[in-house]
Amino acid sequence: MGDYFIFLSFHTLKKLLLKIFCMRAGDLKAGMFVELEGKIYEVIEVERQKVAQRQPHVKTKLKETVTGKVIERTFVSSDELKSPDASLRYAKFLYSDGDEFVFIDSQTYEEYRFKREAVEDISPWFIEGIEFQIIVANQVPVAIRLPKVVEIEVVDTPPGVRGDTEAGGVKPATLSNGVVIYVPLHVKKGEKIKVNPETNEYLGRA
């Protein structure tokens, strides 16, 4: 059989590419990703607003995947937005390798690497076996999200003072990853506690 070639006009090809790589604002849903001004955002909230004798508006809250900064942006429902090749993956921390941190995808076992300088501020929470959310854009890992809760051991904290029942009293505690947080007076050295790693907030006993 001979080879068949299909020739498309520039106008037709442009329309086809727009369908593949763009989406309409009216189709936005929470959890989707969009690219604005060269940055990739996750859609975290969508509100559709009807406007008299005009196209509906779409009010959104968008989270920038690298910095976590949340912005609000309103679109006309027919606005065309760039749809990046982005996905949310789950991966566990494996080890540090020189100036990089290595994670492994929980499903595909693919490795993701992050430069130390890019994630240094959250690296104390890179604990072996803990699962993280990895945002992959255009086949490149671009951001890490910490879990909401981590169970971790208290390795040092002053003993509570007998008879001290002051409501809301707290004391410093050093965790096994070196992070220092404030915990209730009853927490003891060697206990496992639950912590929100994004805020370093004590959540309770494990």
Overview of the molecule:
By secondary structure, the protein is mainly β. The longest helix is centred in the N-terminal third of the chain and has 12 residues, at 10-21. Helices cover 8% and strands 49% of the residues. The protein folds into three domains: 10-82, SH3 type barrels (Roll), CATH 2.30.30; 86-145, OB fold (Dihydrolipoamide Acetyltransferase, E2P) (Beta Barrel), CATH 2.40.50.140; 150-205, Nucleic acid-binding proteins (OB fold (Dihydrolipoamide Acetyltransferase, E2P), Beta Barrel), CATH 2.40.50. The strands form four sheets. Strands 9-8-7-10-11 form a five-stranded antiparallel β-sheet. A five-stranded antiparallel β-sheet has the order 14-13-12-15-16, with no helix packed on it. A four-stranded antiparallel β-sheet has the order 2-3-4-5, with no helix packed on it. The protein is globular, with a radius of gyration of 24 Å.
Descriptive terms for the model:
206 residues, mainly beta, SH3 type barrels, OB fold (Dihydrolipoamide Acetyltransferase, E2P), five-stranded antiparallel sheet, 2 helices, 49% strand
List the helices and strands and how they pair.
Elements: H1 10-21, E1 22-24, E2 33-36, E3 39-49, E4 57-64, E5 70-76, E6 80-82, E7 86-97, E8 100-105, E9 111-115, H2 116-119, E10 131-137, E11 140-145, E12 150-156, E13 170-175, E14 180-184, E15 192-196, E16 201-205
Antiparallel strand pairs: 1-6, 2-3, 3-4, 4-5, 7-8, 7-10, 8-9, 10-11, 12-13, 12-15, 13-14, 15-16
